[in-house]
Design goal:
The protein is an alpha+beta fold and about 450 residues long. The protein is built from 12 helices and 19 strands. Helix 1 crosses helix 2 and helix 1 runs parallel beside helix 9. The structure holds flavin-adenine dinucleotide (FAD).
């Protein structure tokens, strides 16, 4: 091996960068190959949680929850299982499965949807979780553990370095990188995984369409009271933007509130009890007084119940917020981004560097982990044929598969955001009709559950 040469260099040690590094490390083809992960701030590994702490149940709280919570779907779980990181999550950290996702429309009581539509109380109809909720730092720590826990330290595939790339230069079949501090290294494949402000994307002059949504997201940890053991994720669409409650354990949930930044900043300055009162009002207040079609929609819903034989559904009751941990409240900008190309010869983008999505459906990290799977497969295929891992035709295959699925998901979330961002009566009627259909038509409901809990099939063509 040439000094200063790495088969793959990954810039960014977030979910996508570490996900790809962990997958490559697992590959037999990388036994004698090298991967370098660079990040300007290397993440820490969380200490393992003591199972004896809370009656042996790590899903309960033995340390405060962080405010960055991800809803991982079945496909992401499979990727983490393949790397060995999911075992670390289960053995050393915590996660919380949810069996139902409920969305409510504050402009229309008939406009709620439930995925799956079965009642939470009827345990026999609950098959498998629709999502697993866990902290971003748990995913990162578990991936770091499988990357670093190597019995063969001398021949370790993955090394990590706190550094940033300041320049790139193309050679015939490789890229030469200049790092901060002046050091130069060379690689067959440079991967940009630095999030939506990707450095590699800029250095390689790869075009990216971007826009910011007009609101920010406020996140934080809530103490909640609910009747279903907190096994559902909730979202209510308000005229000011959606509010979500993501379950973390029986009585703890993570808040995501989308609104204009000035309104969120003002809310944070209030006392804890004022914040709790305001948040509970967001979950219960009726904003539908200008809506003419409520009665007609109820009749339609009853009619459909009669045809399909399903029981008449009442608008579900979301958890009641008891308290909020003010120290965990923080705001994030929310935007849309789409790189017109994910690849160039010897260069690839993954995760938010390639696509930024509105977080209302919790799909960003899921798309990122699927990118890792598809790109690692292409790299392995190229190496298996004795080719360069950065071979353009092979990278184009990754782009083709990933872009199709990612863009469809991004546009779907954008459409939902726009459909629920208006108070126009015909649009409210339209989305209420869609909700009634989703609740009553089993096939539609099942397809949507499948879409939300697994994105994998879309990649298979
Ligand atoms: C409020 C909110 C809620 C969300 N909820 C969900 C959810 O429930 N489910 C879900 O799937 N997704 C969710 N997302 C999306 C999710 O956070 C992202 O899609 C995901 O973090 C992307 O991972 P990434 O590794 O591509 O980028 P990042 O997580 O942003 O990681 C980028 C890494 O690159 C490093 N870096 C940055 N610049 C440089 C540089 N110049 N040089 C070297 N290193 C650099 C950073 O330090 C970081 O470690 C949410 C997003 C927001 C804003």
């Amino acid at each position: 091996m040439k000094r200063g040469f790495y088969d793959v260099v990954i810039s960014g040690a977030g979910v996508s960068g570490l996900g790809l590094a962990a997958l490559l490390k697992k590959s037999p083809l990388f036994k004698s190959r090298s991967v370098l992960v660079l990040d300007r701030t290397l993440p820490n590994i969380l200490p393992a949680m003591d199972p004896k702490e809370e009656g042996g149940n790590r899903s309960e709280k033995s340390r405060p929850y962080s405010n960055r919570i991800y809803a991982l779907n079945e496909s992401s779980l499979e990727v983490l299982q393949r790397t060995g990181a999911w075992e670390v999550v289960c053995d050393e950290y915590r996660h919380w499965p949810a069996y139902r996702m409920v969305t409510l429309d504050s402009k229309s009581p008939s406009g709620f949807t439930s995925f799956p539509s079965s009642s939470l109380e009827s345990d026999e109809r609950i098959e498998k979780p629709v999502a697993h909720f866990l902290e971003s730092e748990v995913i990162v720590s578990s991936l770091l553990k499988v990357i670093q826990d190597s019995p063969h330290k001398v021949t370790d595939t993955v090394s990590m370095n706190k550094n940033e790339i300041t320049g790139i230069q193309r050679n015939q079949s490789s890229i030469q990188l200049t790092l901060e501090g002046g050091q130069t290294i060379e690689t067959s494949l440079l991967v940009g995984a630095e999030g939506y402000k990707s450095n590699v994307r800029k250095l390689a002059k790869m075009k990216c369409y971007q826009h910011e949504y007009h609101h920010h997201a406020l996140v934080g940890t809530l103490s909640v009271e609910c009747s279903d053991g907190n096994r559902a994720a909730w979202q209510r669409f308000l005229p000011s933007g959606p509010i979500a409650s993501l379950p973390l354990n029986r009585d703890t949930a993570s808040l995501v509130l989308f609104a204009e930044k000035s309104n969120l900043d003002e809310l944070i300055t209030k006392t804890e009890s004022e914040i709790v009162e305001q948040l509970n009002a967001y979950w219960s207040e009726d904003y539908g007084d200008n809506f003419q079609f409520t009665g007609a929609l109820k009749i339609l819903s009853r009619g459909l119940n009669g045809i399909t034989g399903s029981p008449e559904a009442e608008e579900p009751k979301p958890p009641m917020i008891r308290s909020v941990d003010k120290s965990t409240l923080a705001t994030f900008p929310v935007g849309f981004g789409h790189a017109s190309h994910y690849v160039q010869p010897n260069i690839a983008l993954i995760g938010d560097a390639a696509h930024r999505i509105h977080p209302l459906a919790g799909q960003g990290a899921n798309l990122s982990l699927l990118d890792c799977e598809v790109l690692s497969t292409q790299v392995e295929e190229a190496l298996g044929k004795g080719e360069n891992p950065g071979k353009y035709s092979s990278l184009l295959e990754y782009e083709r598969k990933a872009q199709k699925h990612n863009l469809t998901t991004q546009l779907f979330c954008d459409l939902i955001y726009r459909m629920y961002g208006t108070n126009s009566a015909p649009v409210v009627a339209l989305r209420s009709l869609a909700s009634i259909g989703v609740n009553n038509l089993e096939m539609v409901n099942k397809s949507l559950v499948h879409w939300a809990s697994s994105g994998k099939n879309a990649y298979k063509t």
